[in-house]
Amino acid sequence: MWRTEVGVRDTGGGMTAGDPPPRGVATGPLQGKSCTDESPELIGYRGPTACSAAGITYRQLDYWARTGLVEPSIRAAYGSGSQRLYSFRDIVVLKIVKRLLDTGVSLQNIRTAVQHLRTRGRADLAQMTLMSDGATVYECSSPDEVVDLLQGGQGVFGIAVGVVWKDVEGALAQLHGEHVDTGETIVGDHPGDELARRRNRAG
């Protein structure tokens, strides 16, 4: 049974150099599996699309990008008229940040959590649950770990990253993206469009 502490908390454990870290406590920036084990994402999403899929305002998106909280990993904005381009993973992180902020987690701990999420592979994210007591964010990768954290009185709310991933996937399927290499627009399959096509065929 284990859990990884994503946030920053003084444990007061009196560790000395060379001592192994106690189980469940991070001793600095968390290191996870590199996301280079995944094939590069070939589709990017502009700011308004990222906002719609993540459930945030453009003002939030712009502020988070300018302060370095969540920056677009595909293309940053350079000068007037240029468009930021976000990856699918970026939008998942945006949605998680919004939920953490809504529950009162500090920006310092959210920044640490964002850095940690970016190190994890897709399979890791799909089974991960983020728990928080409002001060610290914890990573749990199994139901047993969630129960263990709750029994310890530390978990107040949880975010199932795999569910967020699927929510974003469903939202983006109905929105427009673009090929990173060619800039070609990819039109989302909106349910209303399909209904219109069926009506046209029936007529």
Core attributes:
203 residues, 4-stranded antiparallel beta sheet, globular, alpha+beta, single chain
Could you walk me through the main structural features you see in this protein, from its secondary elements to its overall organization?
This protein is of the alpha+beta class and 203 residues long. The chain contains 8 helices and 8 strands. The chain is globular, with a radius of gyration of 19 Å. The relative contact order is 0.17.
- The succession of helices and strands, N to C, reads EEHHEHHHEEHEHEEH
Count, helices = 8
Helix content: 40-55%
The number of strands is 8
Low-confidence stretches: 7-40, 192-197
**Looking across the biggest beta sheet, what order are the strands in?**
1-5-4-6
Question: What is the radius of gyration?
Answer: 19 Å
Percent strand: 5-15%
| Secondary-structure class | alpha+beta
Distance between the termini: 61 Å
Q: Could you describe the largest sheet, including whether it forms a barrel?
A: 4 strands, antiparallel
Roughly what is the average pLDDT, rounded to an integer?
74
Shape: globular
What's the layout of helices and strands?
Elements: E1 4-5, E2 43-46, H1 47-54, H2 58-66, E3 85-86, H3 88-102, H4 107-118, H5 122-126, E4 129-132, E5 137-140, H6 143-151, E6 157-160, H7 161-172, E7 177-179, E8 185-186, H8 191-202
Antiparallel strand pairs: 1-5, 2-3, 2-7, 4-5, 4-6, 7-8
Helix pairs in contact: 1-3, 1-7, 3-4, 3-7
